[in-house]
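Much of our argument rests on the idea that a fold can be written as discrete symbols. Part of our work consisted of pairing the sequence of a single chain with a tokenised description of its backbone. We regard such an encoding as a compact summary of how the chain folds. The amino acid sequence and the backbone structure tokens for this protein are reproduced below.
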Amino acid sequence: MSSDDKVRPTKLKFKGEKTKKKRKREDGEEGSSTSRRRRKEEEESPETWVLPESAHEIRGPTFIMHPSDPSPICITYDSTRGRIVLHSLDKDRTEGQEPVSFLDRTPAEVSQVWVITRVAGSPTINLRTGVGEGKFLSCDKHGLVSADREARGPQEEWTPIVLPDGMVAFQNVYEKYLAVDEVAGGTIALRGDSDEVGFAERFWVKIQSKYKREAHEEEKKRTEGVTDGMKVDEAGANKIYQAWGAGRSVVSVDDKKELKRARKEGRLAEALLDRRAKLKSDRFC
């Protein structure tokens, strides 16, 4: 048998399957999932719509969807009527357009975008409409959800909870969850009185890539700040940054008297020690 007739080990391939090229690893990190994810985020456009991985990343322009049946929906604000509308995403498709997978959908108009803000260090967020005069999404104690307030208060605060599958649940100040509910006439609306997280309480949330990177940078600085804070000279810092008079310690009149008396007593003690030492030396001379 010639060398050409020898059996060569091969990998099974299906007809039409593309051959994958092997990629070289750089610095031993090329193949790690973390490095691949970071590289992908850096290559993405700042306006690319992505899924958040943690609650602190949910900020800025936000697109909120729900996988309802028979058509997925998104939470929209109708500025003309001043009300929340659950818009069918299938209506955004033009005739002849190829269907887009659910998680690849992006906002088709400004009314489908909510602007999320939060106080630094707070787990709660506020959802403001992206059109009109800017109304906040709120929920009262009866579970009625609306967007007709220009000021924010406790009823306008929501706590986002990222679930293991990547979906998000929104909890209000009454510890109830935002949900999609079927009302009279077969239409659907938002409610905020659910006690548990089920299918109706789970939403897909998409944010812009630049705000996700911004959240990562803030978290990195916060972590590094805590680490660096352990090395601070507390006494020196207090004297420099917490004293008046260009770094001089400013004390009260009583404190000055105490310090003066302490110095006087210290000088007397030193004088006594010197006197004893001198007498001792004279005795042995």
